[in-house]
Design a protein that fits this description.
Elements lengths: L1 H24 L7 H17 L5 H21 L3 H11 L5 H24 L7 E6 L2 E6 L6 H19 L5 H18 L2 H19 L2 H4 L1 H22 L6 H9 L35 H9 L1 H20 L3 H16 L13 H7 L1 H4 L6
Antiparallel strand pairs: 1-2
Length: about 375
């Protein structure tokens, strides 16, 4: 009975979180969003306490939950606590099944938004406004912004390839390359296209060059990339208009770095980072990794990225080479976009992977 309760509450929470993500991408304004988050927190809490855990897992849960409580006391944000409880609730669940459900449910929701916008029932098909100092018409197909549409195509591609790569052949990868090229035609999202094609290239290399799947240096390179991405983000948050290199980088990122200076307190810049965040740190901007440290604090940010590095090493031990591609490309995308850094659990697939490898992450062995 406990196992059934744990499973039902976990999937109920997951589906609610995914629904909130889809609604957030639409033009619909979700009412009482905070209450929905509290509901999913309670559901995952029930799932957690009705699941068997080893002593080291309970100790780790206490430590990370304490981090969440400190964050809540300092910033009045409860996201870290919600994230921690969700990850530990993954214990004992078939997370590969949960990943497939996440993919299919999110895909269905996004297709529904596209259909509703095209039929004129709900949502905007295209936006005509100034992009890169030029007025253009770009297509968002019911998802609010062209970049948001391309981002969802990218995110679904990552998850779909991870879940079904064993069935995927070279023709499938070719179709995905053509799909993202076509999406770029409608959205003109350079960042989305660049990382999408990079992700597909990495998927292809890992699929058709077998020694890369088990080569230790493939995973060490992934860890080095995550480290480099964090260091680059720190440098961008310390951006100075007097440095030509960062001025050029800002032009490439279409003003994303300089946008941090366009606020009263230079929100997001290094001087607004604190060990545990701050209650006033609520500004939204595109630089995802910067947002992690700005929103949640330096210590939680370091913990999160160390967990990703540890996750890649677990992937090496388990020969989960597609995990390498997913984590690296999510990190790459998060350098200049913040889709995966939000209050929505259903946006960040890393949480499910952390839950899937929770035992190994904590130094134990799978039963």
């Amino acid at each position: 009975m406990a196992e059934k309760i744990s499973t039902v509450t976990f999937y109920a929470a997951l589906l609610i979180e995914l629904t909130l993500v889809i609604l957030d991408k639409s033009d619909y304004i979700t009412r009482y969003e905070g209450l929905w988050f509290r509901l999913t927190f309670v559901l995952t809490g029930i799932s957690l306490i009705t699941t068997k855990h080893r002593m080291r897992e309970w100790i780790a849960l206490f430590v990370f939950a304490a981090m969440g409580v400190i964050s809540y006391m300092v910033t009045d944000r409860n996201e870290i606590l919600r994230f921690v409880v969700f990850i530990f609730a993954c214990q004992g669940k078939d997370i590969k099944k949960a990943l497939k459900i996440t993919f299919l449910y999110t895909l269905a929701g996004c297709l529904l938004l596209v259909v509703l916008s095209l039929t004129g029932i709900h949502g905007t098909v295209a936006l005509t406004q100034t992009y890169r100092e030029v007025e253009e018409t770009r297509y968002c197909f019911g998802m609010g912004h062209p970049n948001a549409f391309h981002c969802m195509v990218f995110a679904l591609t990552l998850l779909g390839v991870y879940c079904y790569h064993e069935r995927l052949r070279w023709k499938g990868y070719l179709l995905l390359f053509l799909l993202h090229t076509g999406v770029f035609y409608f959205t003109d999202s350079r960042a989305g296209l660049l990382v999408s094609l990079g992700a597909l290239l990495l998927f292809v290399l890992l699929t058709y060059v077998p020694f890369l799947q088990t080569w230790k240096w493939s995973y060490l390179a992934g860890i080095a990339f995550i480290t480099g991405a964090v260091l680059l983000s720190v440098a961008m948050a310390a951006y100075s208009t007097n440095l030509p290199l960062f001025a050029k980088l800002d032009v490439f990122l279409t003003g994303r770095i300089f946008a941090l200076l366009d606020s009263t307190y230079d929100e997001g810049m290094l001087n607004t980072w604190f060990l545990w965040g701050a209650a006033r740190n609520t500004k939204y901007f595109d630089l995802g990794i910067v947002r992690v440290f700005y929103w949640f604090g330096i210590l939680p940010g370091i913990t999160y990225y160390l967990a990703q590095c540890r996750l890649l090493w677990c992937g090496f031990k388990k020969h989960d080479y597609m995990l390498l591609a997913v984590v690296v490309t999510i990190t790459a995308y998060s350098i200049f976009e913040a889709h995966f850094v939000s209050v929505y659990i259903g946006r960040n697939y890393i949480f499910l992977f952390l839950g899937m490898y929770l035992t190994e992450l904590l130094g134990g062995k799978e039963a």
